[in-house]
Structures are given as structure tokens and as C-alpha cells.
DNA sequence: CGGTCTCTTGATCTTGTTCAACAAGTGTGG
DNA sequence: CCACACTTGTTGAACAAGATCAAGAGACCG
């Protein structure tokens, strides 16, 4: 998470004037996919962003229980792959929904590009990528039971605080229960009940305006019900 | 949406070496807020990003029904305001959860920064900002009833297709019902039921692998139940 | 034409919301 | 210093949206 961030300088390549911002323009396509083909896979080294020229692409993440979580559908003109900017590797899978043509935009990791004092690439891109990933994580979190949502939230806060050098055992919560509810999309009452439940399980201890984490592993593994039946991952036919 | 995008070049200002990436370092703070103070408001002209130095900030959007949707909590070291990059104005509200110090990073809209052929700022930043907003919208969407989620999804797809010059009346859906479900976080059966319901209301007509939109206004206004009681917006005491 | 998917519809169950009441904490003023 | 108001957090009971289980209807394809 706090790993040395790589920076990117991106150059269009092939016949893609201005990142293919228009629709037409014929040739020099970088990738052609059939329905079900993978454009990239979570974990792949990210050398590029992709602009959809024709067809359609979906991006998704696999929940740890095997359930598929779709993050977006991309139609022609839209750009896929922003999640990779921060770490230089994709975080989601991307798959063609039908025959699809894409334009590849090479992104070479490059140290601090514009050396004119402007710090556009320096940390900004990293922050941007983190924001995208944070939102993606939030969407994934949204797909869990109330108990799991709160458990993850607490771990997340603990992690944030650990990064600041504070103890990750005692998590201070500057926000009200209602705020947590509006963040996790739970009624205030449910948030309260889940705090009580986690404390009852012996996983946390409520302590002033924060909580003490007693069993982080249990919190992380909390998975009472998948909340949504895991269908078979994806497109059945096709490679 | 498709408005001429402004580009940004960002320079640190004040005592913020490397975007305040560390924690300490004393002086020259740009903003100091008390609990409940607004850092910026949705619609404000976005002249800057902010790095949290101490304290805590929440960002939120107001649903059209007045309910508050929290998009994130930001602790020291984190950057607030990325959602504004694309349009030059903030899309969310940001409020201090307690006494908070922030470091301001001025972002002057600047045309196509690095003129060396690299098109980093050219469309990339815009795309990045759009991705952030897309994810934020997705999170907001997540907070609606099944009917509303599907209705919005269809309008979204219609909008995308309209931008491609295709008809926005007939929406082709290249993905399976199950895919829509995994995107909207609904069981396949529920997606199917909602299609049937919307068709029964006369708002859409199912047509091959897509739908014809008969009453876009009704779809947009679809709001059977708020799905979550709207609490009073936010922090009660404090300015 | 049979097999395999996808979509649709019905019945039942679970989770989390909603309504309601109460406890605990904080601050103010008499 | 304590009573009172006000806010935040906790707990109980009833309800509802949507998931799950189950089964059947089309569609597509070899």
C-alpha cells in the first residue's frame, strides 16, 4: 500500500489521435477480442490503458468467496484500466462482452515526468489511482452483510491509523454512528447492533469514542452470509 | 457531461513538501476548520485539492431525496477533492469531523500542460476524473431500490449510446441479465422481475436483446421507497 | 431434435429497515 | 451542584425488500 509508487507517462500509439476521443477513424487497432476474451486480468503488469473502439467490455473483481462483482461496462470511446495507475498492475479483470476492438495506450512507468517543478505526476497520479481503488473497494464492501461491512470498516480505519504511526489496536472513530451508517449504507440502529454483536463475539471492545481491536483475523474473516448467491463467475461459453 | 474539459497543472504551495506526504512539518497551513465546518461544497469552483494534515474530513453527496450519502473519510496524509478535476467544480461536499488542518494545493486550470507530445494531461486527467465520478455515482446508485437501480442503469446506457450517435430510444444491452445483476448487486431473478415491472408500468418495452425506452422521465423519477430513512443531514452542533 | 443456457415466474425466508422507547452523556443555567 | 434540555447510542418488535429455492418457458446450437 505504501510501496514506492511508480509514475506514468502516457503516449498514444497507433492510429489514435487524442486518445480516440471521436468515434470513427479506421485502422491500426491494437487489440481485437471475441466475446468472453480477457483484455487483462487482475495482477497483470499494467503497461497500458485501453480505449474501446467498438464492442463492449466489463471490468470485474472476484470476491474472496468466488462471487463476481462487476465494476463497470465500457462502451466505445471509454477508457479502461485506470485502476492500474498506482501500482503498475491491474486490480480488476476486464472481459469483452462481444466482439470488441480496442486501442492501446502505452503507459511506461517513468520517474517524475515533467521536471519543471510542477508535481502533476509526482504524487498526484498515485493519489488519483488510490482514489479509484478506494472507490472500487467501497463498491465491493457494499456487497457484504452488515456485520462484515462494519468489521472491514474498522480494519480499514485501523490500517489508516497504523500508517500514521498510531496504534492499530485502538481505533479512534471521530465520526458518529449515524455517519458510519451513511457511509456503509446501514441504518444507525443496525450499526449500533453490529457494534454490540462484534463486542459480544469478543472481537472488539468498545472504549470511549473508539474501539479496541481484539481479534483482527476474525474481523477480516467475518463472513456470516455471502449476502448474494455466487453465480458461476462469468460468461460460460467462449475462451 | 461532454463539456469542454479543462486541464490542470498543480503546484504545491505553502509548506507542503511533496504534497505533505509525511506527517509532521509544522507551519504555513492553508486552512483550519472546526468540527462541522465545510471545506467545500458541491458546485463550488474547484481551485485546489486538499491534503489533510490533522483531524478528519468526510465527503458526501446529498441524494435528491435529501438523504446524505457519505463517500469517504479522510485522515491525515490523504487527499480530498479529486472528484473536481474533470469539470473544475466539486461534485461532493466536504466537512470537518473535528478540528482539522489542511494543506491547500492550488490547481490552476491550464491548457495542455506538457507540450512534448506526451498527452498525460490532455485527456488522461479528464478520463481519470470521470472514472472517479462514475464510481461515486455507482455508490449513490447502490443506495436505491431495485427498481430505481435498474431504471437508472437503463438511462445510463441510453445516455452512453446517445453520445455515440446511436438512438437513445432503443437501448441495446450486450450483457446478460446475470451481468446486470452482478453490476447492480441484485439477484438475476430480481433483475428479471424489475424488467417485467418496468415493462408493466409502460415505461419500457423489451425488444430482442435490448429495450425501448418509452418514458424516460418516469424512469428518472422512479422512487418507490427511499430504501433508507433520511436522517437529518449531518452534524447538528457546530457552525 | 435433444442439450444447454438464459430468462421468467412463483413461494418462502432472511436481513436489515422502520417505528418506538429508553439509557447514557454533555452542556447550560438557575 | 443539580435539574433540564438535547443529542447520541442502544435495544425490542413488527415489517418489507429482496435473496434463495424450485420449476418451467424460450432460445440457441451442434
Write the layout of secondary structure elements.
2 copies of one chain form a homodimer.
Chain A: E1 8-12, E2 31-33, E3 38-40, E4 48-54, E5 57-62, E6 68-74, E7 79-80, E8 93-96, E9 100-109, H1 120-142, H2 146-163, E10 170-172, H3 177-184, H4 188-200, E11 204-207, E12 210-213, H5 216-221
Antiparallel strand pairs in A: 1-9, 2-9, 3-8, 4-7, 4-9, 5-6, 5-8, 10-12, 11-12
Helix pairs in contact in A: 2-4, 3-4
Chain A binds a DNA duplex (30 and 30 nucleotides) through residues 145-146, 176-178, 186-193, 195-196, 225, 227-229, 236-237.
What do you see in this structure?
The structure is a homodimer of 239-residue chains. With 239 residues, chain A is of the alpha+beta class. Chain A has two domains: 8-140, Jelly Rolls (Sandwich), CATH 2.60.120; 145-221, Winged helix-like DNA-binding domain superfamily/Winged helix DNA-binding domain (Arc Repressor Mutant, subunit A, Orthogonal Bundle). Helices cover 28% and strands 24% of the residues of chain A. Chain A has five helices and twelve strands. In chain A, the strands form three sheets. In chain A, strands 1, 2, 4, 7 and 9 form a five-stranded antiparallel sheet that branches. A four-stranded antiparallel sheet of chain A has the order 3-8-5-6, with helices on one face. In chain A, strands 10-12-11 form a three-stranded antiparallel sheet. In chain A, helix 2 (146-163) crosses helix 4 and helix 3 (177-184) packs across helix 4. Chain A is elongated and about 55 Å long. The model of chain A is unreliable at 1-28, 108-120 and 224-239 (pLDDT under 50). At the A-B interface, strand 1, strand 6, helix 1, helix 2 and helix 3 of A face strand 1, strand 6, helix 1, helix 2 and helix 3 of B. The structure holds a DNA duplex (30 and 30 nucleotides).
